């Protein structure tokens, strides 16, 4: 019995309550510093590098999708980014959205990244060009 308890405690400490560890945990925050659901979170290598192979979606790990993980992070410089859309705007050429991206240099030690998905107002003219 003692060995079973010791094994269970060791596995919990090693893998946590989810049953698997992650290399990178990404947490999305709003303008108040509160966790917020992101519409999408992804990682990618810098586009100008030979490693670039597009964006890779992260897995949402909580019910409200405020936390995302990379299970097997590359051991090279890469970027993590996320975005979210806000509520409807009363002007059809405007909206609210939040975006943040950060470089990550994973060295084998689990890391937590926070993305600031503060909503910002944007507007475009009828041709689709951004307005100041």
Task: Provide an overview of this structure.
By secondary structure, this protein is mainly β. It is built from 1 helix and 9 strands, in the order H-E-E-E-E-E-E-E-E-E. The strands form 2 sheets. A 5-stranded antiparallel sheet has the order 3-2-6-7-9, with no helix packed on it. The chain has a 4-stranded mixed sheet with strand order 4-5-1-8, with no helix packed on it.
Keywords:
globular, four-stranded mixed beta sheet, 38% strand, 1 helix, 132 residues, disordered N terminus, single chain, mainly beta, five-stranded antiparallel beta sheet, 9 strands
How is the topology of this model organized?
Layout: H1 2-15, E1 24-29, E2 40-44, E3 56-57, E4 59-60, E5 67-70, E6 77-85, E7 94-105, E8 111-116, E9 120-123
């Amino acid at each position: 019995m003692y060995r079973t308890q010791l094994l269970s405690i060791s596995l919990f400490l090693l893998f946590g309550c989810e049953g698997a560890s992650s290399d990178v945990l990404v947490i999305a925050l709003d303008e108040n510093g509160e966790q917020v659901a992101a519409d999408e979170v992804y990682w990618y290598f810098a586009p100008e590098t030979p490693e670039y192979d597009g964006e890779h979606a992260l897995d949402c790990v909580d019910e409200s999708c405020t936390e995302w993980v990379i299970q097997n992070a590359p051991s090279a410089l890469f970027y993590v980014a996320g975005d979210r859309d806000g509520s409807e705007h009363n002007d059809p050429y405007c909206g609210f959205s939040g975006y943040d991206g950060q470089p990550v240099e994973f060295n084998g030690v689990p890391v937590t990244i926070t993305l600031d998905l503060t909503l910002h107002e944007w507007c475009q003219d009828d041709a689709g060009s951004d307005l100041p």
